[in-house]
Every structure is written in C-alpha cells, then in structure tokens.
Amino acid sequence: MRAEAVTRVKLVFKLFDADGNGVLEDDDFTLMSDRVAAAVPDADQERTRAMRASFQQYWETLVRELDADGDGRITYEEFQACVLSPERFNEAVDAFAAGFSHFGDVDGSGTVTRPVFIGMMRGVGFELANIEALFDAFEPDAADRIRVDVWEAEIKNYYAPDKGGVPADLLAAGVAA
Q1: Do residues 131 and 171 lie in contact, with contact meaning Cβ atoms separated by under 8 Å?
Q2: In a 3-state reduction of DSSP, which class is residue 126?
Q3: For the chain, N or C: smaller number of CB within 10 Å?
Q4: Which tens digits make up the pLDDT trace of 58-82?
C-alpha cells in the first residue's frame, strides 16, 4: 500500500465525517450529498438522484463490510481497511465515481465546467487550491471544461492502494500522512 493512498484515504475520511464527531454515520453521507446537490442547482433530478444513490451505496458498503457490532458507526481504522481493499470496495467506488462525476455534467455534453467542479468538490470539503490544481491537471479544453470520463477514472485512482504520483494526489497536497 502506497503512502499516497493512505494520505488520500485519511483526508476523505475526515471530509466524509461531515459532523466532525470522529466516526462515519449514515447522516454524514446524507449531509455530504446535500452539500454537493446544493453546489449544482442546475442538475436535473435524474443526475441528482444518481449522485445521492452513489453516496448511499458507498455508506451501505461500509456498513455491510465493517459494522460488525451493528452500531451504525465506522471508525477511521475500519474505513481504511475497507476502502484500501479493492476486493471489498471496488463496486462501491465504481458506483460512486460514476454517480459523482456524471452529476457535474449538467448539460449532458460529457464535460464538467470549472465552476461546477469547484462547487462539487468544495461541497465535499476539499481545499480550493487543491481543487484548482486537480482541475488543471485534467487539461481543460478551450471552454474550461474537463471530460467526465477522465474525472471518473481519477476518482477511482483516489481509492487505489497501489497508485501514487497521480493527479488525485493533488487533493491531499499539504495533508500530513
């Protein structure tokens, strides 16, 4: 497992702990999807529903894989063990990557504008400078748009335990391991 992967996962746990109580719970994922939905008010209902469903599937996978005592709470240690195990979490990551990235394609062009990308990523809680660096790493076109499929693939890289030196690392730049 690469150090970059551990740093990325540590950051996403902190961000997904939307209420800041040190554990992940169902309400954290609802709050997070509410924040992302609010950041893209022009998204249609179908895309909004798919994005929310991807957050819910992510949560349900965590609970199914990790919540042995049934308390509805996931600690960082439990989280890291699951999300960095592709055999346990790839299906949820794939669904999350698709639902999240496609949500930003508000006009159905297969692309996401910088303002929408920034809004969604700020909704998750990433730092603006890191978001801008990632967007630029995706080599936006002349209209300042990135391809949805490129973003979707990079979300998957974010959760890959064997990946380092990838654009996804830019989101965790400046985060202590």
Answers
A1: yes
A2: coil
A3: C
A4: 899 888 888 878 899 998 888 877 6
